[in-house]
Design goal:
The protein is of the alpha/beta class and about 300 residues long. The chain has nine helices and 13 strands. The chain has helices spanning about 40-50, 65-80, 145-155, 170-175, 185-190, 195-205, 245-255, 260-275, 290-295, and strands spanning about 5, 10-15, 35-40, 55-65, 80-90, 95-100, 110-115, 135-140, 160-165, 180-185, 210-215, 220-225, 225-230.
Length: about 300
């Protein structure tokens, strides 16, 4: 396989509203503009995007034995993703989220719930032949399992990318990554720097790899050694920004495994993420390789 992803999956209830609650002047009661049920979760979405971009992808995680769990499994299989290491927790509800999307600008708020029984234990990754993948992508949802798989991947000489929210042991996971990809918020929390460039340079002492930060509509930035590279964002009319960071990671992984130069990889990842924002849902917004290439040419 090309890429093996370990981390979060979810079934999302996406609710489109005229304004997010709490917005200036927004009423406390609003009529819903639209609602849909869609599969998501940061790593599951990244693997779906990797598959859509032409990579052979596999997913490692835990679902419940409910209807939502069956939907996650069926959706991943339908997208061509290997689910050999997708575990089922009996008598447990699959992780779910209610996502409120602002109809005016596509921005969203996420309300989620995950039973502790869905935790992937570290020993459950020992049966995985990590050397069969060219790259391993992990998040910090189940940190012990992510750390163990990342260590095995590094020992096998494989690339390791991340989706870190700056939780416990985040620095340990960052140190194992060859290409950590962080949100701007995570960079600030991990480095105590609120400027993205200063934050990346501060994190250099923990990680010798290529450090990357996503900047939302402003694009992305990467630190390769001491060289800072930036790629501006691509302006689109956003429908739903859910999953944009996950799709960016898939674009970055695709560029990395395709041997693209780092600047071109950032540009390709930005395009995939921007295109995903023009569509509703996390996995629902995943673009194909042909879509992304055509978008770059326009």
């Amino acid at each position: 396989m090309d890429v093996l992803g370990l981390g979060e999956n979810s079934v999302d209830r996406v609710v489109v509203v005229p304004h997010l609650p709490g917005a200036s002047g927004a009423p406390s009661k609003m009529r819903v503009d639209a609602a849909m049920r869609s599969c998501g979760g940061q790593v599951a979405t990244t693997m779906a995007a990797c598959a859509a971009l032409g990579l052979r992808a596999a997913y490692v995680g835990v679902i419940g034995d409910d209807d939502d769990g069956r939907l996650v499994r069926e959706t991943l299989i339908a997208r061509g993703i290997d689910v050999t290491h997708l575990h089922v927790a009996p008598h447990v509800a699959t992780r779910s989220a209610t996502i409120l999307v602002d109809a005016a600008n596509g921005e969203r708020s996420v309300l989620w719930n995950r039973d502790d029984a869905l935790t992937l234990r570290a020993e459950q990754v020992d049966a995985i032949d990590v050397a069969a993948a060219r790259l391993v992508h992990v998040d910090d949802t189940d940190m012990a399992a992510s750390l163990r798989l990342a260590r095995a991947a590094r020992a096998a000489g494989r690339f390791v990318t991340t989706d870190i929210d700056a939780g416990d042991e985040a620095i340990a996971l960052l140190a194992l990554a060859t290409h950590p990809i962080l949100s701007e918020h995570a960079v600030a929390l991990l480095s105590s720097e609120h400027d993205a460039e200063r934050g990346l340079r501060a994190l250099r002492r923990h990680c010798g790899g290529v450090l990357c930060v996503t900047l939302g509509p402003r694009g992305a930035m990467a630190l390769d050694g001491d060289i800072l590279l930036t790629a501006p964002g691509i302006s689109v009319t956003a429908v739903d920004t859910t999953g944009a960071g996950d799709v960016f990671r898939a674009g970055f992984i695709t560029g990395l495994l395709g041997g693209r130069e780092l600047t071109e990889t950032l540009r390709f990842a930005n395009a995939a993420a921007a295109l995903s924002c023009t569509r509703a849902g996390a996995m629902g917004g995943v673009p194909t390789l042909a879509d992304t290439q055509a978008f770059l040419l326009n």
